[in-house]
Structure prediction request, 503 residues.
Amino acid sequence: MAQQFIYRPDAAVVETGQGKVRGYVCDGITIFKGIPYGKARRFHAPQPPKPWEGVFDATSFGYVCPLLETPQPVGELMIPYRFWVMNEDCLNLNIWTPGCDGQKRPVMVWLHGGGFESGSAIEHIAYEGENMSREGQVVVVSINHRLNVLGYCDLSEYGEEYANSANAGMDDIILSLKWIQENIGRFGGDPDNVVLFGQSGGGAKITTLLQMPGADGLYAKGFNMSGVIGSMSADSTESGRKLAEALMKELHIRTVKDLETVPYGALAAAYLKVRPLLAARGEYAGGTPRPNAFYAGDPVKYGFRKETSQIPMLVGTVFGEFTAFSPDPLDIHKASREEGREAVRKVLGAKKADELLALFEKAYPERHPVQLLKLDTLFRLPTMQYIRKRSALNQCTYSYLFNLDLPVDGGRAPWHCADIPYVFHNTGLVPVTQEEGVTGRIEKEIFESVMAFARTGDPNHEGLPRWNPSTPDKEWTLIVDRNTHVVCNHDARLVPLLAEAMQ
Prediction:
């Protein structure tokens, strides 16, 4: 059946608080791109956009935040990227909706990955919201905001105007959520049921938002995919004065005001030069959120805020994450299990290897023993700690692990970002997901869980075994693979010991 396409003056026009926007309709989904939700001076808090006259053309993606370095076109088979025009005027969002009709549908707000430094709302081809909107009958929103030195550079000692420059990128997201509260009803969404979801850095932004009083009341649920990153994106600390001084010295300027106006390319180059020097001395180097009056800090370290402790959370990781990007140490399709064990012994030593192998083969009996070396601990360990502490406060913290091998080199453990196409119902856009008899079933399991969670705060549905929320003593984890099942504390001993052994 041919797709229906509508683009004319009397269709897909919505009146927002700033003025009218015009998108287009494609196969029953109304799409708006690049709508401004704010404006920002460099290092300052964002402000709502000024009203406009006429009708804003919302048919093109807006600018994305400038990156620190030119991206390299590699690895697109496993993570199909795309890049876009960069400009500091990047506070914009995209909307996919089944109808601008006054219905109150769940609103899925996507926060992109890339840590707090890179990425964009359209970077991964699977970030397209059309299929999620159609199949789930939800409104999907994706957001661009400031990153890197533009979004996370503490200049608070230089005046009240820079009071939260250390978290300016997060303030952008908060402003976008306020825009959603004020306007999404006109796009067929329910402002009382805003669901934050994000992967990697996007998940970390959700964790951060829960710790920011300024975001309270702007969302109802959170879905954190591989976003509890621990030390990898730990909070910045200390004063940003030395960073500011180093930047000014490198750029041959005298005042912080001059930092506001130097060309971005020069600022980025200077930051890339001075940042590692400061970090090596243990000094503030920016680039991640900083605890202050606006942000309560990493909840595992500083405690969860009571105001957001009852927000339902879906939290999980992928079996391989970063380790899965490299091939297995030996061919798991040809090597015997004993050959795999011997390969692990060569890496870890016989005593440690045998202890860990016994735990691994019990926790992951479907896997070849050598894949112990592929099991992620960088994300999984802090995620376990997060779930343990958060679940002590509520009965709505759910744990999952994406464990589905993908058809690369005869079957490879899943990697960081591998689960994104299934969540968005976009496996058809990502060739590497395609496996007859498997892809559609797994996509359905995952997608229906996400939609159930969006509607009720509970990810259970008829296609899954019973999946309980976790408690401090019992982490009930949905293992998503060819035989999706629920386990309790299956790798609770394994992961901490493996993390220690791999140091």
In short: The two ends are 55 Å apart (CA to CA). The domain at 5-144+155-191+204-228+295-311 is CATH 3.40.50.1820 (Rossmann fold). DSSP finds 14 helices and 15 strands in the chain. The chain has a mean pLDDT of 96.
